[in-house]
Structures are given as structure tokens and as C-alpha cells.
Specification:
The structure is a homodimer of 202-residue chains.
Chain A lengths: L1 H11 L6 H8 L3 H7 L3 H24 L5 H18 L1 H12 L11 H13 L9 H22 L9 H14 L25
Helix pairs in contact in A: 1-2, 1-4, 1-6, 2-3, 4-5, 4-6, 5-7, 5-8, 5-9, 7-8, 8-9
Chain lengths: 202, 202
């Protein structure tokens, strides 16, 4: 029943999912569902908890290894993408947390770990001196959210899409060594207001 | 009425929005709504079209300027983030396209432009020789999706959140020059299966 609930919440979201639909998909009586979960919110809480537990289980296997902090952050990101691809409870936990703003965000379960590892990486000199741990953490958060959006956009469109794990590996390669051939002044300066004229700030 | 429709679709999504609710929020009769739009799908189509038009309008102001291709890609990304922050039609277009898989994705409106600019940047030597345009395009797609997810997670939580434009500027700084202090062999090799044991592949 938890698996059916995760799949329904993942596919249709919180609002469009009902306990009676989950009971039908799971092939159990509505009484059996409500015996365990008195409300849809209760069941969603349980699915979110399971998704976080599955996520932390995946990450703990990695952190038990002998990897350097930066390498570990990369492997954690790839493992998060793998979990998103393969575990409906993880996808449901991500979606439910977004749709139920009063509950903990899925990333709250692992972002502090990523930040702590990046602090270590910085202290050990693995990061460039101007690559601040807070900024790299933000990059990881964006890549993970981007991977989920990609996955959600492609789901149901057949198996002919590229694995998000492979995509993140390509992106990490870029992010580690840099996109630009020139270390110079290409980045635009912060502007205090939106650009109103083409090229005006250049 | 289009503004009310964009705001409702943006906040509540396609399924949870009805023509009668939009008519109530816009303060017009349901007859006035159905006179212009015979169905919710029609109105959603119009909102998505407007969101794409607003997006392309914002980008065209930039491309009229004298910027180099790589710089232009960065500015386009920042402009997309600004549009997401400020334009409900853009946010609605993104959300509706995701929730209505039979319609064009919002990114279809601008990703080809980004790819063409990155091809130019590569030819002009602005990119590292191993920073392939396809991979940088993928990075842009992930950052944009990540910015939208961040924004959606923080909306309604008051003005005390960081601008996504400022965030993307920090991330671009990293991505341009690279995160790692070492150009060496830190990136993990592709694995054909999921890691089953901690550190086994290292």
C-alpha cells in the first residue's frame, strides 16, 4: 500500500490523490487504508518520511567510504539522481514536500551534509579559494532540482531519454574545471535594477 | 482576466483551477470568460502563449546588444530568472507546460537560441575545448529549472529570500572558472550499475 501511495502521489500530486484511489490501486479495502492512516495528510507524511529514509540510506552507504570531501559531494549528487530515477518514494517525497509547504523540504534531509562536506573540502584546499562552500552548495541544490525537473518532464515519454545520472556527470565535469577558456572579467556585474535597454550596462 | 488566469494557474496549477474561479478572481462574469475561451484548455493555451511571448520579448532586448556569445548566454539566464521572479505569465507558462505534457515545453522557446549561442562561443574559442556546447546547454537548462524550483519553494514565505538572479550570478561565477583547485582526475568514472557497496568502485 505504501508503494501504491508513493506512486499515486508521485504521478498525480497531493490534491489529485485520494485515499479511495490509493485503496483501489493497491487492491485493498478503503477500511484497510483508514485503519492505518486516518487521513490523506497522515499517509502523505508517512510517504515523505519513507522517501527521506530511502534517501539517507543511499547517502550513508557512500559516506561510509574513504572518499575525499569534494568527491563525496559529487557522488552524493549522482546518488540523489539515481534515487530520483529509481525510487517512487523519493520522487513522491520531493513532490509532496513542495506541494505541502508546512512540511519539511526533501533537501533539508541532505543539504546540511553537503554543506559540511564542502566546508571540509574548502579547508583542505580542494576548492578554488574563490569557490565558496555556500555557493557550491547552491550549485548542488540547483543541479538536483534541475535533475528532478528534467526527470519529471521526460517521464512517461518512453525509455529513450538520457539518464539524469549521466547528465549530472557531464555537468559536474564542466563545473569542476570551468566553462570559460578565459579566467578574466566576463561575469556581468550585479545590477541594482533590471536591464531596461539592450547592452546599456556594458 | 489574462492576468488573473496566469496568477491562478501559477499558484494552483491546471487541475485545481477552474474557469469559474478565474471569473470570480478577475471580477467578471463566467459568460464573459467563456465568450473568449470555450474551455479551460483554451485559456491555458493562451496563458502559455503569453508567457512564451513575454519570455522571448525579454530575451530579444538582450540579443539586440553587442555582447559576446558566452556573455549573452549568461545574461539570458539571468533575464530568465528575473522573468520568473516578476512575471506571473512566465511562471504560469512553465507550470502549465509541465502539467500538460501534450503542449510545448516553455524551454523550447529559448533553449535552441542558447545552444546556437554556445556553438558560436565554442567556435570563437570562448569555451574550454572540453566544455562542449551540448553540455553547457544542459547546465543552463538545469540552472533554470533549479531557479524555478527554488522560487516555487520560497514563494509565499515573505520577501526575505535571496533573489534567484543573485543566486544564478554566484553559480555562473563558479561554473565559468571551475569549482576545483585541481584540474586532475577527481571526476568519478561512469558506472554501469548502481553502487552496491560503500567505496567498492574506488
Amino acid at each position: 500500500m505504501m508503494k501504491a501511495a508513493a506512486e499515486e502521489f508521485d504521478r498525480h500530486g497531493y490534491d489529485a490523490t485520494s485515499l479511495s484511489r490509493i485503496s483501489a490501486v493497491a487492491g485493498v479495502s478503503i477500511g484497510a487504508v483508514t485503519f492505518h492512516f486516518s487521513s490523506k495528510a497522515d499517509l502523505a507524511d508517512a510517504v515523505q518520511q519513507e522517501g527521506r529514509a530511502v534517501t539517507l540510506g543511499g547517502l550513508e552507504r557512500l559516506t561510509a567510504g574513504p572518499l575525499s570531501p569534494l568527491r563525496l559531494v559529487i557522488d552524493l549528487t549522482l546518488e540523489l539522481a539515481r534515487l530520483m530515477e529509481q525510487e517512487s518514494s523519493v520522487r513522491a517525497a520531493i513532490r509532496l514536500a513542495r506541494e505541502r509547504p508546512d512540511t519539511d523540504a526533501w533537501s533539508d534531509a541532505w543539504l546540511p551534509m553537503v554543506r559540511a562536506l564542502l566546508d571540509q573540502a574548502y579547508e583542505r584546499g580542494q576548492l578554488r579559494t574563490d569557490a565558496l562552500p555556500a555557493d557550491v552548495t547552491l550549485l548542488v541544490e540547483h543541479l538536483t532540482n534541475g535533475a528532478e525537473a528534467y526527470l519529471r518532464g521526460r517521464m512517461g515519454s518512453g525509455p529513450a531519454f538520457e539518464s539524469t545520472v549521466a547528465q549530472l556527470r557531464r555537468i559536474w565535469h564542466l563545473a569542476l574545471v570551468g566553462v570559460s577558456s578565459d579566467d578574466g572579467v566576463i561575469l556581468p556585474q550585479p545590477r541594482t535594477r533590471a536591464p531596461s535597454q539592450a547592452g546599456a550596462a556594458d
